[in-house]
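hiii so my PI (J.) wants the whole complex modelled not just the main chain, which honestly fair. so below is everything: two entries, each one labled with what it is. i double checked the lines twice but i was tired so who knows lol
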Amino acid sequence: MSIFEYNGSAVVAMVGKNCFAIASDRRLGVNLQTIATDFQRIFKIHDKLYIGLSGLATDVQTLYQRLVFRHKLYQLREERDMKPQTFASLVSAVLYEKRFGPYFCMPVIAGLGEDDVPFICTMDCIGAKELAKDFVVSGTASESLYGACESMYKPNMEPEELFETISQALLSSVDRDCLSGWGGHVLLVTPTEVQERTLKSRMD
Amino acid sequence: MAIRGNWMYENNGGTCVAIAGADYCVIAADTRLSVGYSIYTRDYSKICKLADKCVMASSGFQGDLKALQKNLAAKHLIYQHQHNKQMSCPAMAQLLSNTLYYKRFFPYYTFNILGGLDSDGKGCVFTYDAVGSYERVGYSAHGTGAGLIIPVLDNQLKSPSPLLLPAKDAVTPLSEMEAVDLVKDVFASATERDIYTGDKVEILVINASGIRQELMELRKD
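here's the output for the full assembly
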C-alpha cells in the first residue's frame, strides 16, 4: 500500500460566483483501522485563505504548522495578509525544498484574491502547481471526486447552490472509498462571511 | 499484442455502463479501442446482442471479449434448438457466469455487464467480475472510467444503492428519457478525465417494443 494511502483522505475545493467552497472528509485511519472520526484537514491561514491537506496525517500537521509560521512572519514584515497566489507559490517552494525526501501531502489551496476573485489550486507532493478555474481534488478518493465534480459542477453558482453541490460530490465520492468518510467538513467562504458545516454521511 | 514473457493479456481501455428501469434497460459503452497511449480505432463496438431481450457490454481485453461472444452465441443457438425459444435474461446471466468460471485458471480478461428485461418485463442488470461472480443490481459500470462514473450514479439514480444493507430491489424510478440523459452526462464527464474513454458512445435501450440504438459524439482527444 502506498504511503499516500496510509491514513486515507479526501479534499475538494470549488469556485462559485464571488465565493469558494472547500470540503474534506473527517476520517483518520491507520491502514484498515479507523483511529479518529473528527480529524481536521482544512486549516485557516487568514480570513480569506484556506488550505486543505490530504495524504500522510503527520505531514499534514507539520506542513500546516510550518506554513502558518511563514505566514505570520510575512504578516509581521509586510503588515498585511498574503494573497492566495503568493501563498500558493510559498507552498510550492516549501514542498520543493524537500524534493528528495518529500512531505507526503497534496495540498488544496482556496482563497479570495484581489477584488474578491476566487482562487483555487492544487499541487503534487513536490510542489507542481495546478491552477484550475472550476474545481480541484486531492486524496485517496480523488478519482471518484473527479467524476462526481465533473458531472455536478456548473460555473457561477450562488453560495447556497455551491454548498449543496460540493457536499453531494464529496459524500457520493467518499462512499465509494473505504479509506475516507465518517462525515464531511464544508467551509463556504464569501467576501462577507464564512459558513462552516459538518455533514453526516454513512459512518463507515 | 506485445507478449512480454508470458503476459497473455492487454487492456484495451474503455468504459461501459448499464441502468435498469421499471420497464426498460439502458446499456452504453464508448467506442474507443486503445493500447498503451495509442488508439487503434475510434469506432469499435463493445456491445453484443446475445438474445432478443439480452445485451452484453464489456470492457477489458477485447480479444477475449470476441471469443466470449462467439462462445455465448454458439451456446445460445444450441439452447434455441433444444428448447424452441430464446434464452431469458436471467438464464443468460447464469450461462455467462458458468462460461467465465469454466476458465477460472486462465480467465477471460473481460469485465462484463449484462442488461435486458426479465420474464416480468422489468429491467435487469447483472454485473460480473472476470471469473464469473455475478449479482443482479439496479445499475453498474466497468472499465477505466468506472471509478469516475459510479459515485455519480449512486447519487443520481435515487434507487437503493448496492451499498445499503439489507439489499433492496434496486430498480430506479427514473423515466427512460431521464436515464438516457444521465448516461450521456456521465460519459461526457468520464471523457474529460479518463484518457481511454472518448470518441463516441453507443447507447442501447431495451424495452417492450425492442432494442433502440443511439450514437452520441464525445471528445476525441
